[in-house]
Write a structure and sequence with these properties.
four-stranded mixed sheet, two-stranded antiparallel ribbon, 6 helices, alpha+beta, 6 strands
C-alpha cells in the first residue's frame, strides 16, 4: 500500500531506505541475521540485491524509472529523511521539488512485495506515479 498523499509539489526523486547500516558492524549483524533466519532481514535488500550486488532485474527497472531512484542505509539519512521515515525501515521516500521528504511506501507493502511471485514488478508498481 502506498502511503503518499495528494501533494502539490512534484516528486524529483525516490529514495529507498534499507533496514541496515552502512558500517562494518552493520554488515556483520546483517550477515549473522540472514544466516540465522535464512531470509534477508531487510525485504527491500532481498528485492533489489542478488548476493552483494544490485540485482539485474531491479537495475533495469530503476534505470527506466521516470525520476531518479537512489538508495541509502539507516545510518546515512539526513535529519529530514529520518523524520519522514519515522523510524520504520525499510521504506521508500519521495523527495519533492520543494526539498521536503514524504514517505511513499512503508515496510508492510515492501514485505508483501518480497512474497510476491514477481517482487521487482510489485515494487515497481508501488513506485509508479499516482
Amino acid at each position: 500500500m502506498r502511503e503518499d498523499r495528494v501533494d502539490a509539489a512534484p516528486v524529483k526523486r525516490l529514495v529507498l531506505i534499507y533496514a541496515a547500516d552502512f558500517t562494518l558492524g552493520g554488515a556483520l549483524r546483517y550477515a549473522v541475521e540472514r544466516v540465522r533466519r535464512r531470509k534477508d532481514p531487510c525485504a527491500l535488500c532481498d528485492i533489489t540485491y542478488e548476493g552483494l550486488r544490485e540485482g539485474a532485474a531491479w537495475k533495469a527497472c530503476r534505470v527506466a524509472f521516470p525520476v531518479p531512484v537512489d538508495a541509502a542505509y539507516r545510518d546515512q539519512l539526513t535529519p529530514a529523511m529520518a523524520e519522514a521515515a519515522g523510524g520504520a525501515f525499510p521504506c521508500i521516500l519521495a523527495e519533492h521539488a520543494d526539498g521536503r521528504f514524504t514517505r511513499r511506501v512503508g515496510s508492510a507493502a515492501i514485505e508483501a512485495c518480497r512474497d510476491d511471485p514477481a517482487p521487482v514488478d510489485c515494487l515497481a508498481g508501488l513506485l509508479a506515479p499516482a
